[in-house]
Design brief:
Blueprint (H helix, E strand, L loop, with lengths): L7 H4 E4 L4 E4 L2 E2 L5 H42 L5 H15 L3 E10 L4 E9 L2 H10 L8 H15 L3 E7 L8 E7 L8 H8 L5 H23 L3 E4 L2 E10 L1 H18 L3 E12 L1 H16 L3 E5 L3 H9 L8 E3 L2 H13 L1
Length: 341
């Protein structure tokens, strides 16, 4: 088959009775350009520009690599130039972009490959301009991905296409250059990284960020709930901020561990800095007092607000098991009297 014989209209097998379209043995699809523009915007908004670039580049790479393999199985090419030129011709026929090669040189034995060319009417550049306006960086990610995939499949070695000019950046036309990956300099790094992000996962990124947030929350919690041994056998734990159920559980666990390691006989829990407390968290305070008592440690609550006092009262907390005092100073005095007695 010669390059001039390529006619996608004849190569495609339309099967409306089954809702399928085939190129050789591979199913093909036809989508609206504006629907791909919506997809591009959604990707940008949901996963950010970096991952969007990688997704589109990998998508394009698979398209190019797959098109080459399909045509290779289906046709016998007259020359190597015809075999290679089928890629640009496919883009022209598919309505993706018009490809105009301006320089092409390849030598399999010598391991050389270079192509320079022009892209006109890039659907990607048009979509990006419509959705976002002009960009500071080239935007034809699926086109460079396709070229990289097609050329790599053709040459049997890793090849990377980059965009040297882009209509999405305000240029009159898009221009590209393709070389062996090993022959590229730093200019190709963004395109290489986009193709290599197969191990990149938004889920893993979110998981890592969640773990970081949890670590930071834990550190903040420790800072906002310090436990200090201010006298022999006397611990003071001031609580600052909102006291929710999760934080209450962490406080209980941390305090009981400290009581065991320090063998303290008294603990002053000062809640002057607590913004609000609900019934469940107030119940947690009572439980920590009871748990400390089981370890032989006396707890004193200081700095209760009127609303917190009402909450404790509604729980039916006995004043015999929950000793409350006005402020931290009074609590410390009470503990020292208890130890001396």
């Amino acid at each position: 088959m010669n390059l001039e014989d390529i006619n996608l209209a004849e190569m495609l097998a339309f099967k409306p009775e089954t809702g399928q379209l085939f190129l050789g043995e591979d199913r093909m699809l036809v989508f609206r350009q504006d629907s791909l523009a919506v997809l591009r915007r959604q990707l940008h908004e949901q996963v950010g520009p970096q991952l969007t670039r990688s997704i589109l580049a990998r998508f394009g790479y698979q398209c190019g690599h797959g098109d080459f393999q399909t045509l290779e199985r289906s046709y016998d090419w007259g020359t190597e130039e015809d075999r290679f030129g089928a890629g640009p011709a496919m883009h022209n026929w598919e309505g993706i972009v018009h490809v105009e090669p301006t320089f092409l040189e390849f030598d399999r034995e010598a391991g050389r490959f270079q192509m320079i060319g022009i892209w006109r009417n890039s659907y990607e550049a048009e979509n990006h301009l419509r959705e976002f306006g002009e960009s500071e960086e080239p935007v034809c990610h699926s086109l460079t991905g396709y070229a990289s995939g097609w050329c790599s499949a053709f040459f049997g070695r890793a090849i990377v296409a980059i965009e040297t000019k882009c209509m999405g950046c305000g240029a009159e036309r898009c221009e590209f250059e393709i070389r062996l990956r090993s022959e590229w300099d730093e200019r190709a790094r963004p395109w290489i990284e986009a193709l290599e992000h197969t191990e990149y996962s938004l889920t893993r990124e979110l998981q890592a960020k969640m773990e970081l947030v949890e670590e930071q929350a834990s550190a903040i919690s420790e800072l906002s709930t310090p436990i200090m041994e201010i006298w022999d056998s006397v611990l003071v734990m001031p609580i600052i901020g909102t006291l929710d159920e999760r934080r209450s559980s962490a406080i209980v666990e941390t305090l009981l561990q400290r009581i065991v390691t320090s063998q303290s006989r008294c603990v002053v829990i000062d809640v002057t800095g607590v913004e609000s407390v609900d019934t469940e968290t107030a119940d947690s305070l009572i439980k920590v007092v009871r748990a400390a008592a089981l370890l032989g440690t006396r707890c004193v609550l200081t700095g209760l607000s009127p609303s917190m006092a009402q909450t404790l009262s509604r729980l039916g907390a006995s004043m015999q098991e929950v000793r409350t005092l006005r402020d931290l100073k009074a609590g410390l005095k009470d503990c020292l009297r208890y130890l001396r007695g």
